[in-house]
Amino acid sequence: MTELTLKYGCNPNQKPARIFSDVGALPIQVLNGRPGYINFLDALNSWQLVKELKAATGLPAAASFKHVSPAGAALGLPLSDLERLLYFAGDLPLSPIASAYVRARGADRVCSYGDWAALSDVCDEETARFLALEVSDGVIAPGYTPKALEILQAKRKGGYNVVQIDPRYVPKAIEHKDVFGIAFEQGRNNSVIRAELLDNLVTENKELPDAAKRDMILALITLKYTQSNSVCYVKDGMTIGVGAGQQSRIHCTRLAGSKADTWRLRQHPRVLGLPFVEGIRRPERDNAIDLFLLEDSTELLEGDGWRAMFQHCPDPLTAEEKQAWIAQMQGVTLGSDAFFPFGDNVERARKSGVQYIVQPGGSIRDDHVIDTCNKYGIAMAFTGLRLFHH
Questions:
Q1: Which residue in 54, 66, 155, 322 is the catalytic one?
Q2: Domain containing residue 301
Q3: 185 in a structural domain
């Protein structure tokens, strides 16, 4: 048996804490820092996500994890000039794996603060240089170039967590966990997310472009490693809103939809042109944008604390301006880890540009959900595969 002693568990009072393998060596090496219990939960869940995304799409993949759910996940597609501005990439050179992480982080920059990063490919210098600019707890990857490791080892005064995992590692088919002193056992969720799952189109609209199929696969794999209940909005090879751990399906859809709306609103010319003073750090800028987009931001913006962020106090977007801007969003895919019990989820989703939906199906009200999709010309696929994750 091999083990690694941790500082403590989920909280400082939870000692002792360790990770261990009772069959062979641990498939990980800590190259820098001292990852904790939650760090390793994020690392191992996020690694599975990006590894499966790479296998399913053939593209480099990255994820930004917080508290055992993804804040964002993305494929390594080239960034447009707008995306570079939106995600604070500037004129940095970006490799495909670096682009994947920039996009994963950019999905929800507020929630990605202090994240755990996961990379499907070897971490190169370009990715490390971007990571060095962000507030992040650690990274897991199948390898690191010497220059990338040098950059990351200098982050956080030498305390940044860098974990390398053996990409050949295959876990046991049966997994265990303890709750209240009682052991649970189940077979691992080894379901493979592939294009054949999308063949059962149950709506009048049977058109499913290749880009939508790719986004459906991305949504399903993301949901497979998101705490349930969960719903995921995806566009152009990246998540733009993840709703995790909600007790109600509609609340998942609303939460993820509000994040997708914020992602869209960050592209508004007035937001891109906010008159920040020189030297504002990335986290403060992200938080200021988030507050600027609140329903009633006037009072906040006029406060002394936030006024100091801007050269002059900007005029907030009106509700009508926000609605009009969000209404232009199209081509969004929505995935759900379990069936929609009511058509209200579709009603909410289409307000955020959803034109494609993938879900297991199996509700006694499937007909109502299908009819709601037909009302808006939405194409929906039933996979028959539930993806609860706890």
A1: 66
A2: 269-316
A3: no
Other beta carbons less than 10 A from residue 148's beta carbon: 24
Catalytic residue among 67, 268, 351, 368: 67
Give yes or no: 176 in active site.
no
| pTM assigned to the model | 0.95
Same domain for 80 and 122, yes or no, is yes
On whether residue 93 sits in a domain, the answer given is: yes
Check whether residue 99 and residue 127 sit in a common domain.
yes
DSSP 8-state assignment for residue 142: S
> 368 an active-site residue?
no
Query: How many domains are there within the chain?
Result: 3
287 labelled catalytic = no
Q: In this structure, what CATH number is given to the domain that contains residue 293? A: 1.10.287
The structure tokens 């037909």 sit at 374
Is residue 11 part of the annotated active site? The answer reads no
Per annotation, catalytic residue among 157, 176, 206, 390:
390
Is 142 a member of any domain? yes
Count other C-beta atoms under 10 Å from residue 237's C-beta.
21
For 239-261, what is each residue's pLDDT tens digit? 999 999 999 999 999 999 999 99
Q: Taking the CB of residue 357, how many other CB atoms lie within 10 A of it?
A: 27
Yes or no: say if 294 and 300 are a contact pair by the CB < 8 Å rule. yes
Give residue-wise pLDDT tens across range 63-97. Answer: 999 999 999 999 999 999 999 999 999 999 999 99
Report the distance separating Cα 159 and Cα 174, nearest Å: 35
